[in-house]
Amino acid sequence: MFGTAPMKLFTCRASQHLAQMIADRLGIELGRSSVTKFSDGEFQPCFDESVRGCMVFIVQSTNPPAENLLELLLMIDAAKRASAYKVIAVIPYYGFARQDRKDRPRVSIGSKLTADLLSTAGVDRVITMDLHADQIQGFFNVPVDHMFCSAVFAPYIANLKLSNLTVSAPDMGGSKRANAYSRHLQSEMVLCYKLRKKPNTIEEMSIIGEVEGRNVVIIDDMVDTAGTLVLAANMMKERGATSIRAFATHPILSGNAVERINDCALEELVVSDSVPFINTSSKIKILSVADMFAKTINAVTTNQSISKNFVF
Q1: Contact between 8 and 57 (Cβ < 8 Å)
Q2: Given pLDDT bands bounded at 50, 70 and 90, which one contains residue 91?
Q3: 188-198 and 201-208: which strand pairing?
Q4: Which of 27, 144, 193, 236 has its CA 20 to 30 A from that of 20?
Q5: Furthest CA-CA distance within the chain
Q6: Which of 305, 269, 18, 16 is nearest to 153 (CA)?
Q7: pTM over 0.85
Q8: Are 196 and 202 within 8 A, CB to CB?
Q9: What is the pLDDT of residue 183?
Q10: What pLDDT shows up at residue 242?
Q11: Which tens digit of pLDDT belongs to each residue from 58-75?
Q12: Do 87 and 123 contact (CB within 8 A), yes or no?
């Protein structure tokens, strides 16, 4: 309950499995909704139960195709028009987050446009995890609860009890995240510097720091084509690293990314279930973030602090 407003949890089609696990941990039934499809491909989401006066949480990652984002927008609009008290978008993976600035002339800032679309649809709050850039929170004029997968990954790494542990960032942009892990785990840290002339294509990479004889853990927010990750892992192996593991929150894994991971020097890739992913590789391990989201949703509904859910 939120004051006198009951809480209800719904999901769009792309995040049904995670939403069901969140509902199970909250001890509630997942709300009933449906999608009407038209012959030309148009679709119309619908709540199949009343949400009047309710605090409505809608779970949906906005990974491609863009239809996932549109479905979330339509669900938010439907909830507002059905007189919901508050509408909270639970976005485990915030798509278009790599478009957080104008890195060359005549391009859009996709993550800002996405934030504007969510606001226009009527969202009252956003709960998300491991944004590609922290400043995206400032694109919203509503509260943003930014969660970190370190609450799941850090205990897993600690339980490995690796000697000579070194934490690495796959690029300079991930240095802040890697540094937080390094301080928490009391380990050494190295960085990778990459030169990228166009998306998903790396021209050059170098490693700043010593990895010989070290057990390396690479930390990243997402893995898409796995090009950066594979190149970094193979270079570290060539430089004498004892073992290389990677932890990436969002498993986009497009194209032949899984094959690349299978054929590279990585011993293990650990990801979350923020994005629907059918695992076909023995090297990839999926850790659920359902419990973390359930705790945050419960804290929001009861006006409690969510900072206690963070490891660092």
Answers
A1: yes
A2: very high
A3: antiparallel
A4: 144
A5: 61
A6: 269
A7: yes
A8: yes
A9: 95
A10: 98
A11: 999 999 999 999 999 999
A12: yes
**Out of 70-84, 203-217, 254-268, least confident range:** 203-217
How many separate domains does the chain show?
2
Q: Which two tokens stand for residue 192?
A: 């990778």
Give the active site residues.
Answer: 194
C-alpha span between 255 and 13 (Å, rounded): 22
Residue 200 has pLDDT above 60, yes or no: no
Neighbours of 190 (CB within 10 A): 22
| Statement to judge: residues 113 and 230 lie in one domain | no
- Do residues 69 and 120 make contact, with C-beta atoms less than 8 angstroms apart? no
Question: Nearest-CA neighbor of 62 among 80, 76, 78?
Answer: 76
Identity of residue 129: M
| 74 and 156 fall within a common domain | no
Q: How many CB atoms lie within 10 A of CB 48?
A: 9
Using DSSP's 3-state secondary structure scheme, residue 30 falls into: coil
Q: Which two tokens stand for residue 270?
A: 């650990």
Give the number of residues written for the chain: 312
Which among 150, 147, 140, 5 is positioned nearest to 86, based on CA atoms?
Answer: 5
Q: What is the DSSP letter of 187?
A: -
Question: Residue 199's pLDDT is what?
Answer: 65
How far, in Å, CA of 247 to CA of 159, rounded?
Answer: 14
Residue 60 lies in domain: 7-147+291-309
* Helices 16-26 & 290-301 angle (0-180, nearest 10): 60
CA-to-CA distance for 123 and 89, rounded, in angstroms? 7
- CATH number, residue 249: 3.40.50.2020
Cα–Cα distance, 100 to 110 (Å, whole number): 7
Please check whether residues 29 and 85 belong to one and the same domain.
Answer: yes
- 240 and 295 co-located in one domain: no
Distance CA 92, CA 71 (A): 15
Mean of per-residue pLDDT scores for the chain: 94
Model confidence pLDDT, tens digit, residues 21-46: 999 999 999 999 999 999 999 999 99
